[in-house]
Amino acid sequence: MTSALSDVRMQVMWARLVSIVEEQAQTLMRTAFSTTVRDAGDLSAAVFDVRGRLVAEAVTGTPGHLNSMAEGVRHFLAKFPADGMEDGDHYITNDPWLTAGHLHDITVVSPVFHRGRVAALLGCCCHQLDIGGLGQGPDGRSIYEEGLQIPILKLASRGKINDVLMELVRQNVRTPLQVEGDVLSYIASNDSGARRLRAMLDEFHLETLSDIADYVITRSQAATEAEIAKLPRGTWHNEMVVDGYDRPITLRAALTIGEGDILVDYQGTDAAVRHGINVVLNYCKAYTFFGLKCIVSPEIPNNAGALAPFKVRAPVGSILNVERPWPVAARHVIGQMLPDVVFGCLSQALPGRVPAEGSSCLWSVQLRAKAVPGMEDRNGRAFETVFFNSGGSGARQSQDGLSATAFPSGVRAMPVEVTEAGAPIVIWRKELRPDSGGAGRTRGGLGQIVEVGSRLQQPFEVLAMFERVRFAARGRDGGGGGAPGVVRLASGTPLRAKGLQEIPAGDRLVLELPGGAGLGAPGERERAAVDEDIRQGLLSPQTAERDYGWKADEGGPLRTGTAGDMSNGS
């Protein structure tokens, strides 16, 4: 076979691997019980070689899951070496320090047997709504309060489920049927991928995945290093202040571009806190790598080779590298800010290529109610539910930021009808928040207004874990900041952005999600774009006049001036 034909063959197999793991992800979404997986796609699915190296990942999934799993599969192999595995084995853990950063993410890894030997490994990682304990909120003071810890264990041996483990899981969660159904769906997902992978190995007359893995990883690493070689050498610094739990937290980064790698050093970042917003190193790496790839090498498929040139350092004991038993349940409120921290460094090194800051942190609305004694006949019952909401992303160099879009997490919002069908709640409003996008040549994306209440005449609780309430997204290159978030009751009482709080019977929870920041001077924005924002109700005339110098008279809108010289709009 000529070199050219061999290369084409490898590329075909590479594309096939991506389609296999995407089918694996879609199987998860069709069989999972939780709406977080079934409707939002809060998951990852990937294939690994027998050395535990990430070879290909599904398009559907989140950076936090995918890049954490890229680091985590080697821990499974350290405990259960491939040569001791049997066909039909499945392995499980939710250890935050080994995989995706908190107990609510369960990872299942399964060997793929082909012609009597382990040819590859398949893995999936999914957000589990219920894992017992206090629930997914920042109130825990240690990992022991946050839920059930599952070390790396056998979930199934030669196709037989570990009934003792499943009984233990059911006993420790509030929704045992849902949790068990989810775990079984992870097995189904890996099994579906295994069938497709074995068919591919047969078709291409391969014993294992080793040769194609070497090809994929070597090519991807070389391509990433080639992109880094185009960048300027040096070190750039950035810092960001975020809300924290009860005091602000400062995240500091120094980004160094070398000959063939990029190092992000978080030296100087604030220490860990006694609430569950801390981040383990795996998760810190996951979102740092994602931020780098977005700007440096967005077209290169994600795998071990594509990630190899990126390095991360975070001081042990800092909020970005905590050790056991520090609480980590709401680690996303800090971890999902890291791409913006990285962008702040890269914007100095690569002007004109980096977006403005966005709302970044996903606003997960986790609601809970306890059964009310004596009200059983009036449906005074317990429930637990979650639905995802997103603010605006930062303005891009040539386009406005995306409104109500989950960046960097990438998860989808659950349909309102699905959420209301699963719990006795009503989502009264879910609409774009006017005037929340930062002004600029390109405008920041808009946040949302979400209003939710209970159908039952009883109080319910919110496990608040919201960010960008005190410190809004910052504009870039003269752009304005996004609107900060607001958490309150419909009756007007303000609520804290983090922590378990009660919504009184008959009242409603109202969330005003933050907007993304603008990019470039507002006076450089096209007049037609301002007019269109006003026409669509995204921007009020008052805010347009304040931020863009926009004015109108009986003859209609006049041309805009600069934000700094309103007289130009007359």
Automatic annotation (TrEMBL):
Residues 520-570 are annotated as: Disordered. Residues 523-535, 544-556 have a biased composition (Basic and acidic residues). One of its GO terms (cellular component) is cytosol. Signal peptide: none annotated. InterPro entries: Hydantoinase_B (IPR003692), Oxoprolinase-like (IPR045079). GO terms for molecular function: 5-oxoprolinase (ATP-hydrolyzing) activity. GO terms for biological process: glutathione metabolic process. Residues 8-522 form the Hydantoinase B/oxoprolinase domain. PANTHER family: 5-OXOPROLINASE RELATED, HYPOTHETICAL 5-OXOPROLINASE (EUROFUNG)-RELATED. This is 5-oxoprolinase. It comes from Telmatospirillum siberiense.
